[in-house]
Design a protein that fits this description.
Elements lengths: L1 E8 L3 H12 L1 H8 L1 E9 L16 E2 L2 H5 L4 E6 L7 H10 L3 E4 L2 H18 L3 E2 L10 H7 L6 E7 L2 H13 L3 H10 L8 H4 L2 H15 L9 E2 L7 H9 L2 E12 L2 E12 L11 E8 L3 E8 L3 H14 L22 E2 L4 E11 L4 H11 L4 E6 L6 E8 L2 E2 H12 L4 E11 L3
Helix pairs in contact: 1-12, 4-5, 5-10, 7-8, 13-14
């Protein structure tokens, strides 16, 4: 049996899960894989800090150089998070001939070119399956199972926090604030939830997914992002009436050399498989030229699901035959042949509060017509004093035309405010 010695950088949520799996499933991993994965070091900031795991304190070190200079260490698994010093530690390890496994989506999304180069130049592996969608093997699927396809589109629910919040709002009628507070109590949301609820976490993940799917580096900066903090129970109820469910979707589409990538709340038909993905679960729906529609579903966050993906990568990293490097141009510069589209086409749901006066609806319709945005339906529901809420659903329209329409509407006499704008994806 082959023995492989490993160092963990961090022993928090995911690192702790990896430690548990490698110790509790040691016999079965040895039986299935012919491997003995031995953790030799765990890098921590404070070796004396109390921890919820029962493991030998002799493994702990606060000196990264002890790991770096130990030639017995073949694999380093990084679970520190953040950009610095995680990026520098990983590159230094690869320069020393050690393969790297990481769950760090931000550092991969923002600094993949440097990490990929270091891995390739030093003949080591760089593995990052746990960086996207927790325990769902979506990256391995894109790397090794979809070679016979040109991938046309990706639609992902890839942030468990926002999916939990929207599910509670949909199923129980909670306000955004109440659902967020519950998510914090259950540990689904951080004390500062900005990274999740404003869509940044999903943006990092989409950058990685779209790059692998479309065989082209998709920079984070090219992704449109909008979070869920503006979603109200009113919009969720109206969506239900129209036969839709609201999800925070990460969307990627490729047509020739044109790519569109965006993260935002989206109305999808309640009959679509993605609409039934609730709670903290994740799912990714892929359309391939040969396979057609394919959806992977499972736990997208949490200690053990993410640790499951990390352990799979650690096992893969023991075999150089599994080392893969990007064959597309993986640089910080956007390839000149690619066009990143910011004027995509979809349907739109717009909720507007107006004064109850003759001619207001006609002036609204005129503005839509001036900007070439075709209205599918207008619904008036209820009335408060002289205020009337209008729900407008458009046919397919261009993003920039709709934004111009919204700005023009805000300036109309008789319009109190534009309450919400949510994109509608019917053709998934």
């Amino acid at each position: 049996m082959k023995t492989v010695k490993i160092a963990l950088l961090g022993i928090g949520n995911v690192g702790g899960g990896v430690y548990r799996i490698l110790n509790e499933d040691k016999a079965s991993i040895g039986h299935r894989e012919g491997l003995a994965c031995e953790i030799k070091y765990v890098l921590v900031r404070d070796v004396n800090k109390p921890r919820d795991l029962d493991f030998p304190k002799s493994l702990l070190t606060d000196d990264f150089n002890v790991i770096l200079d130990d030639d017995e260490i073949e694999i380093v698994a990084e679970f520190m998070g953040g950009i610095h010093p995680a990026k520098e530690y990983m590159i230094e390890c690869m320069k020393k001939g050690k393969s790297v496994v990481t769950a760090n989506k931000e550092v991969i999304a923002k600094h993949w070119p440097d990490l990929n180069r270091a891995a390739k130049e030093n003949g080591v592996g760089l593995f990052f399956e746990p960086s996207v969608a927790g325990g769902i093997p979506i990256l391995k699927t894109l790397w090794t199972s979809m070679q016979g396809n040109d991938i046309e589109s990706i639609y992902g629910i890839i942030n468990g926090t926002t999916n939990y919040i929207l599910s509670r709002m949909t199923d129980e009628g909670l306000t955004y604030e109440a659902a967020l507070n519950d998510a914090k109590k259950l540990g689904y949301a951080e004390p500062d939830p900005t990274n999740d609820v404003e869509g940044y976490d999903a943006t990092y993940k989409l950058s990685i997914l779209a790059s692998l799917a479309f065989h082209a580096k998709v920079p984070v900066e090219k992704i449109y992002v909008e979070g869920i903090s503006g979603i109200s129970p009113i919009d969720i109820d109206y969506a239900k009436e129209l036969g839709y469910v609201i999800k925070l979707l990460a969307i990627g589409k490729k047509n020739g050399e044109t790519i569109e990538v965006r993260v935002h709340p989206t109305m999808i038909k309640k009959t679509h498989p993605l609409a039934s993905v609730n709670g903290a679960y994740n799912a990714v729906f892929i359309k391939g030229s040969a396979v057609g529609g394919l959806m992977l579903y499972g736990q997208g966050a949490g200690r053990m699901p993410t640790a499951s993906a990390a352990v799979s990568d650690i096992i893969s990293a023991t075999n150089p035959a599994n080392f893969k490097y990007t064959t597309f141009e993986n640089t910080y510069e956007t390839p000149k042949c690619l066009n990143f589209k910011n004027d995509w086409e979809c349907g739109y749901y717009i909720r507007v509060s107006v004064h109850d006066r003759p001619g207001v609806l006609a002036s609204l319709a005129a503005v839509f017509g001036q900007h070439m945005v075709s209205i599918q339906s207008v619904i008036q529901t209820g009335q408060r004093e002289d205020q009337v809420p209008l729900r407008i659903v458009t046919h397919l329209a261009k993003e920039q035309s709709v934004k111009q329409t919204i700005e023009a509407i805000k300036a109309l006499d008789g319009v109190i405010q534009v309450d919400s704008l949510i994109r509608v994806e019917d053709d998934i």
